[in-house]
Amino acid sequence: MEQLLLNLGFGNTVVAHKVVAILSPGSSPMKRVKDEAKQEKRLLDVTHGRKIRAFIITESNHVILSAIQADTLSSRFESLMAKEEG
Questions:
Q1: Rg of the chain (C-alpha set)
Q2: What element of type H or E holds 36?
Q3: Domain segments of the chain as ranges
Q4: What is the DSSP letter of 3?
Q5: Strand order in the sheet with 43-45
Q6: 44-64 pLDDT per residue, tens
Q7: H/E element holding 70?
């Protein structure tokens, strides 16, 4: 079975079926989520030093920081899921 990969930018991908949520970083709870993930060594930063524009939560409870807008990642995710169904 072929795995669909969600492009997170800068050559980074994640298996689409492992993604639980794609969130915007602009709230206090997201700062707490990021801090907890960092403390527990579950944080992956794929921003290459750029501004964090999206949080991706995986089924293994890892938090991935991306410099790509959450809306853009969500659109990419929806396209992958539609391709799989079609």
A1: 13
A2: helix 28-39
A3: 5-85
A4: P
A5: 19-23, 54-58, 63-66, 43-45
A6: 999 999 999 999 999 999 999
A7: helix 70-85
